[in-house]
Amino acid sequence: MATSAPCSLDAAVDWLRKRFDAEMARGVSAVYGLDLTGSGGGALTLRIEDGALELARSLDPDAEVVFHMAASDYFRVLAGQENPDLLYMAGRIEIDGDLSRAFKIRTLFRQG
């Protein structure tokens, strides 16, 4: 069931912290970047290291994968109101970096 969508980068940060699945992230070492455009957007780096999540309100130039998309689309993805695969196929998400690593991120956060 879809939840209400975050409407700001701060709300998205809260969502990510609350739904991070440390158990699923055991053994994972990755740096993801989010470049969110439009209202409520901005830059965010997610650094995941063996079950721990660190968030920074900037884009790390060493991010292994960077997602470029409208903030409104990202917020709806978090809420389960948009399918990220369909957004990617429609060109509304651009991904710089390894696609298999990019798609791994969804397993590290609980939905709902």
Topology:
Blueprint: H1 9-19, E1 29-37, E2 42-49, E3 52-56, E4 65-70, H2 71-78, H3 84-89, E5 93-97, H4 99-104
Parallel strand pairs: 1-4
Antiparallel strand pairs: 1-2, 2-3, 4-5
- CATH architectural category: 2-Layer Sandwich
Strand-residue proportion: 25-35%
Please provide the ordered H/E string of secondary-structure elements: HEEEEHHEH
Overall pLDDT metric: 93
Helix content: 25-40%
Strand order of the largest sheet: 3-2-1-4-5
**CATH fold naming:** Nonspecific Lipid-transfer Protein, Chain A
List low-confidence stretches.
none
Q: Radius of gyration, Cα only, in angstroms?
A: 13 Å
Distance between the termini: 7 Å
* Beta strand count: 5
CATH superfamily annotation: SCP2 sterol-binding domain
Largest sheet: 5 strands, mixed
Which geometry do the CA atoms define?
A: globular
> How many helix segments?
4
